[in-house]
Amino acid sequence: MNVKSMLAVAAVAAAGMAAMGVASADQFRSLYAPIAPPQSIDLGKAELGKKLFFDPRLSKSGFISCNSCHNLSRGGSDNLSTSIGDKWQQGPINSPTVLNSSLNLAQFWDGRAADLKEQAGGPIANPAEMAFSHTLAIDVLESIPAYVREFKLVFKKDKIDIDQVTEAIAEFEKTLVTPNSRFDQWLLGKTDALTKDELAGYRLFNESGCVACHNGPNLGGNSFQKMGVVEPYKGNMPDGRAAVTGKDADRFNFKVPTLRNVELTYPYFHDGAANTLTEAVDIMGRLQLGKRFTKEENDQIVAFLKTLTGDQPQFMLPILPPSSDQTPRPKPFN
Amino acid sequence: MNVKSMLAVAAVAAAGMAAMGVASADQFRSLYAPIAPPQSIDLGKAELGKKLFFDPRLSKSGFISCNSCHNLSRGGSDNLSTSIGDKWQQGPINSPTVLNSSLNLAQFWDGRAADLKEQAGGPIANPAEMAFSHTLAIDVLESIPAYVREFKLVFKKDKIDIDQVTEAIAEFEKTLVTPNSRFDQWLLGKTDALTKDELAGYRLFNESGCVACHNGPNLGGNSFQKMGVVEPYKGNMPDGRAAVTGKDADRFNFKVPTLRNVELTYPYFHDGAANTLTEAVDIMGRLQLGKRFTKEENDQIVAFLKTLTGDQPQFMLPILPPSSDQTPRPKPFN
After folding, report:
1. Which of A204, A150, A177 has its CA nearest to residue A320?
2. Cα angle at A25 between A24 and A31, to 5 degrees?
3. CATH code of residue B304
4. What angle do CA A263, A266, A268 make, to 5 degrees?
5. From A330, which residue of chain B is nearest by alpha-carbon distance?
6. Which residues lie across from B132 on neighbouring strands?
7. pLDDT score of B310
8. CB B330 to CB A61 under 8 A?
9. Is A134 annotated as ligand-binding?
């Protein structure tokens, strides 16, 4: 379903409810779901993956780890418009949050990776990001005795390979969900979890049609949609989904970003051009919905969006095993 | 006391003990002390300091935090020869570990900061490191409501200032000690905490004179000594202590680095030129002591050095408060 047909459904629903005088909050409820705690986690794999996620030795420079751009102290993002890669290269696109990313239909803004495991291999070997290669990364890990033992314990194989590395990182990332936001408490029956203004924002979010794309447990992440439906987007505009499908119809289509923890994941949009939620809501209203929200409406929607901040993953900072005399040394400056 | 007179004392002691047939391990014991747990910590200040230590918003780019170069997953160091600063500038000197740094007589290799509080302000404003200014850092912090509240709670003042920032960071750093190494267990009476080879290495460490500079609870950090006593050092050679004192006699003098956790803080020396402990022990033996250790001796000393790895600081990854609409945005690319 594309954004226009979704909007039509939302509009019909809103009109129907308005006609019936029904409290609209309840009618849209079924389009959402609370974030569930992680299920079926292989803890050994996830613990290993946590170390790898924080280990800069997966980069050529020995300086950049997954956590550099998906900083778990900062909503799983780097809070930069576009990321900083090897030798301070400027990335082409905004780093999406890793939080709740297991709920997305695909990974990267253009969905070029089917899942977290496939995604995890990308930045390691991307010359503009960690600038390493899978082979070199494995050479490093194989030279670190404590990693060799831990991989053997977890994967029961004689040799480490990149599949094990990305599988462990993906398993850790599956644990990075953020349940218990005030919105989720409200969804689960705590009727006073949202203030009057936040509820008004929730109604506007639904009735204006934001929900057409930002729905499901992740309020997004479950479809590709065009950036600039009613008006074209004036910022930096890569091909988006079309780069993957080769279809002209997919130009300027992006995976709809999750709105979970959106208060923490500024700046917004694929190019990180919107610094504030106020600005993002205003632009989305005009470009996607043809609406100009009043200041009060914008404030209410922003207030609602801030109820989507859930419990951040809490864990001990991992202690990484030291390199050995045989470990190839990082090359930050050549 | 300079390195030569210290060596003389050590030599006399070693000769005396050898003459008496006394087990030398016990004679040198009083030159060391176990790492003590942190005392008199202001926990509110330390918790705030932990957040600041991990917060890249204290840098111009929004990408570099204290933890970038003093990575607490990696022995409080970055494991690079020299660090990476703003715009990937190559630092002039190896990042010393922050672990147990509260025990040092001064901070930085040249001791130009009297204490941790004074040190903490340096990198923030250094154009080659975090490239910010104290004023801009305070502007950022003052714009973040959760920080404003936390500073007020901890310091009971109306305004945040750089003194509070560096005091909080220093208080956190005081907690970063690493007690309970096997060497400390041995010092505290667990006679089987060290293997035969490790004890042999300990004796060599003492009797060869390493202890002349690497003594006290931190096995170093308590004096400035010349790099290249017997033979000149062939690597990169900044002025060292002379840059602070202006005295020619202090040229090539550096604060003796701690050997605590030295297994984790490779590469070694002020220029990070020695990749392995084997190499570092060999070079130190020749340049500082005029000794060429055999392979067996070198192995034994290295085995002893690896008993100096203590319990690494264990804590939850801090969750940083989000910026507000008023927060000045980072400028990584201009």
Report:
1. A150
2. 105
3. 1.10.760.10
4. 115
5. B80
6. none
7. 98
8. no
9. no
In a domain, A325, yes or no: no
Contact A332 B90 (CB under 8 A): yes
Q: From A174, A197, A226, give the residue that closes a domain.
A: A174
Do A70 and A114 belong together in one domain? yes
Q: Is A324 within the bounds of a domain?
A: no
> Per-residue pLDDT for chain A (334 aa), expressed as one digit of tens each?
565 665 555 555 555 555 444 444 478 999 999 999 999 999 999 999 999 999 999 999 999 999 999 999 999 999 999 999 999 999 999 999 999 999 999 999 999 999 999 999 999 999 999 999 999 999 999 999 999 999 999 999 999 999 999 999 999 999 999 999 999 999 999 999 999 999 999 999 999 999 999 999 999 999 999 999 999 999 888 999 999 999 999 999 999 999 999 999 999 999 999 999 999 999 999 999 999 999 999 999 999 999 999 999 999 999 999 999 999 999 999 8
Residue A36 domain flag: no
Residues A256 and A207 both lie in one domain: yes
In this structure, what token pair is assigned to residue B2? Answer: 């300079």
Query: Annotated catalytic sites of A, by residue?
Result: 129
Closest CA to A119 of A131, A104, A138: A104
A69 is in an annotated binding site: yes
Name the stretches of chain B with pLDDT < 50.
19-25
Do residue A184 and residue A301 come from a single domain?
yes
Q: What is the pLDDT of residue A25?
A: 47
Ligand-binding site membership of B130 (annotated): no
Full domain range(s) for residue A161: 43-174
Q: Is residue B330 situated within a structural domain?
A: no
Question: What's phi and psi for A316, nearest 5 deg?
Answer: -70, 140
Q: Which of A116, A147, A174 is the last residue of a domain?
A: A174
Say whether A73 and B323 touch across the interface (CB within 8 A): no
Q: What is the pLDDT of residue A236?
A: 87
Q: Are residues A54 and A156 in the same domain?
A: yes
Residues A168 and A185 in one domain: no
Q: Does the distance separating the beta carbons of B84 and A63 come in below 8 Å?
A: yes
- The count of structural domains within chain B is 2
Of A62, A63, A73, the CB nearest to B319: A73
Closest-approach residue (CA) in chain B for A264: B322
- Is B62 in contact with A78 (Cβ distance < 8 A)? yes
ipTM: 0.94
- List residues in chain B touching A: CB distance below 8 A: 54-56, 61-63, 68, 71-75, 78-80, 84, 87-88, 90, 263-264, 266-267, 275-278, 312, 314-320, 322-323, 325, 329-330, 332-333
Residues A145, A242, single domain; the answer is no
Interface A:B, Cβ pairs < 8 A: 97
Residues A56 and A118 in one domain: yes
On whether both A194 and A102 belong to a single domain, the answer is no
For position A10, what pLDDT does the model report?
A: 55
